[in-house]
Amino acid sequence: MSQTSVHSSPPNVSSTGKRRNAANSWDRKLPMLGPGDRIAEGDTELVLDILPPDLASVAFEKLRNEVQWNVMHHRGGEVPRLVAVQGEVEPDGSHPIYRHPADSSPPTLPFTPTISLIRDHVSKALKQPLNHVLIQHYRTGADYISEHSDKTIDVVRGSKIVNISLGAERKMTLRTKKDALPAHSAGDDGEDETKRATQRVPLPHNSMFAMGLETNAKWTHSIRADKRHIMSKSPSEQFNNGERISLTFRHIGTFLAPIEGDSKWKIWGQGAKAKTKEEAHEVICGGPEGEALIDAFGKENRQSEFEWDQVYGEGSDVLHFIQEGQGEEIQENQ
């Protein structure tokens, strides 16, 4: 469970920053939603104590030690948290691929033991396959992820995007997309920003946030920076010295496999041009095709009535791309 803002620290000065601060102050006054509340489009829920106590009590420390953490870059800068990717890796090296705006992504490694235990438990609870996980380590309250919608070119249609939170509680902020505002109020100022429907959902240790694709289509989500001194935070926010590990499990329908005798990869499945492994094409890096996929990601980020078949239906064989100073900013993905 995207670009403006892949900065390791917030931008300086400017009226934009002042508007954002005003919006953040207003945002903090919103009521908190939890289990049983209607969240976003109603296809999304928060479940507490999702893992059994014996696993929940050790999962954070085990993951911090067993996961191979990476620094990921977007638009030339470090994203403000550590990341790792794991998935179902077959004996021939084939594995699911989840694509989103980044200069490049960490390698997909096989599920480690603790991730496997968590995945099995969550998959049974949801009655849904989960073959891929994006793991993120929020080291302090200053680490964050910008407002975005997840990119669904590779996500099996009709499935849920599932986020498991371990460690310190952070707040998920959901907001309807700007294009849902009436035309006369879709401006840039903070007052217009507050007209977007906004919800806040605390994500405590051992909770599951299961997001439906209708919510992902019509709302953005983010984990905003919280730079308050740790001693001014609640006990659940201070837990694990303010560190949080986030596991975003997905059911992915697009796959990569190494080309035998070569260092290159081939791609097939839901989000690729070739739909079967036998017809798989060699991956593309950058170029016009990369720019086209970045543009498609931007549309999904902005449009409440995103036409999946029209934009993604033909598929794309792009794997890596770097967009330098082109088009509007797009957010990174959780």
UniProtKB/TrEMBL annotation:
This is Fe2OG dioxygenase domain-containing protein. GO terms for molecular function: dioxygenase activity. Pfam families: 2OG-FeII_Oxy_2. Residues 129-253 form the Fe2OG dioxygenase domain. SUPFAM superfamilies: Clavaminate synthase-like (SSF51197). Transmembrane segments: none annotated. Residues 1-16 have a biased composition (Polar residues). It comes from the Eukaryota. One of its GO terms (biological process) is DNA alkylation repair. InterPro entries: AlkB-like, AlkB-like_sf, ALKBH3, Oxoglu/Fe-dep_dioxygenase_dom. Residues 1-35, 176-196 are annotated as: Disordered.
